[in-house]
Request: fold
Amino acid sequence: MANVSVYNMEGNEVGKMELNDAIFGVEINEHLVHMAVVQQLANKRQGTQKAKTRSEVSGGGRKPWRQKGTGHARQGSIRAPQWTGGGVVFAPTPRDYSFKLNKKEKRAALKSALTSKVQENKFIVLDELKMDEVKTKKFAAVLGNLNVNKALVVLNDNDQNVVLSARNIPDVKTALTNTINVYDILKYNTVIVTKAAVETIEEVYA
Reply:
């Protein structure tokens, strides 16, 4: 099992913690990680783009001039794609970009992402993360103590003081153990997790 240091909010090491290899020590499957990221971004897409084809553009019901004898190239409609104001050739239409991943694939991708952060020493465990009031300056000080800037902070409980304190800091996002995803884990340089959150993740995903 991998051993990681446990820090307090002042950035001092206060102990060690063993991580479950079934979650934080798996063989990294890059293909599944890629698929999980693609799926999340695809599912976010609105898919509402629309342009008109030549059959949908108004006007142009009449042939602009006769087929032969004018010296012009033959034309069937002033709303053909080559005309100004004409339709678009392969016009985009509203569509659903989302697709599904199996539950096992999602779990394997999440475990791979967490394992990669542990291997890169970008996985920081805090003994606890508590704040008496909403204070962005105090939260920024905690990040400074840990020497971290772009971070995903995973909490076990929805502590509003912590969430609201972190909300105004660029490149910092808070998440609960049941909302973590592959894209966020990879997007942020460092993953900061409370000790309680690690235990919950191990219970849920082991």
